Amino acid sequence: MPSGRQPAHFDCTANISEAIESGAVLEGIVQKCDNSYNLYIDLGAAMGVLPFRESAIGADLGKVREISVISKVNKPVCFCITGLREGADGRPVADLSRRLVQEACQRDYLDRLAPGDIIDAAITHFEPFGVFVDIGCGIVSLLPIDCISVSRIAHPRDRFTPGQWLRAVVSGRDGLGRITLTHKELLGTWMENAASFSPGDTVPGVVRSVESYGIFIELLPNLAGLAEVREGIHPGDTVSVYIKSILPEKMKIKLIIIDDFPAGSCHQSRPPLHYYWEGDHIDAFYYSPPSCPREIATVFTPPSGC
């Protein structure tokens, strides 16, 4: 995501005039939304007013819902200052636009992204089917739940927290030209994850699924093992498991449940996500081990000539 946002606080109107001249991208906390859905941000030397029509791309065309504007109260938004005038009470008023900085972000940054590019994003809200993230100046994109990690989760809250920053890979664009994202490709291959464990280890895990033939237990976001069926075990439980074997050629880890801690019965800390890929682009991701006949891969950039 483009950086360079400045805190929107000014000691004098001269500094506001400089911000207008430079076109600086600013960020401030919305203090109020009036009954016409205009937003108000205190800039220090002036009160900033962000009209509804300038609240986002498409607002002037009726493509922005009022609830999306109301929900910005008490949250940071980015904008530029387009003018400075005297208000009815004699105080300086700064006219703001979020639409203009979004259009610049779309034109100069998002439209240039290609499949395989890795970007920073901030979580805005959750849905059962995925998580919405801010990929630049309030422009949002969906990260589907099945693209979050190889280990399946019931809800995005199982993996993320509100406001969390994450890295994501551009997977393509939908029929409306909006960027689509994936995330699991940054969390490591089967072999990279399995290298953290050895047969004979006893380690913590999280129950993700209980089936008739066994219990799937997540050891890491991109690695799960299978334990035999045991009564009283439920999805979301934290367990201690003994690692019987690690079988790369079958892409399997066999586990034995040693102890069970039902969800909510103990403090369960969530370790920070570990990203195995540190660059800004990835051409392809091969999850399965070379010795495994079953290939699981994601190809972002087709080979030259294809």
Automatic annotation (TrEMBL):
Fetch the InterPro entries from UniProt: NA-bd_OB-fold (IPR012340), Ribos_protein_bS1-like (IPR050437), S1_domain (IPR003029)
Give the SUPFAM superfamilies listed for this entry.
Nucleic acid-binding proteins
Q: Which domain of life is it from?
A: Bacteria
Q: Which UniProt keywords apply?
A: Ribonucleoprotein, Ribosomal protein
Segments forming domain S1 motif? 116-184, 200-231
What family does this belong to? Answer: Belongs to the bacterial ribosomal protein bS1 family.
Q: What is the name attached to this protein's record?
A: S1 RNA-binding domain-containing protein
Name the species this protein comes from: Bittarella massiliensis
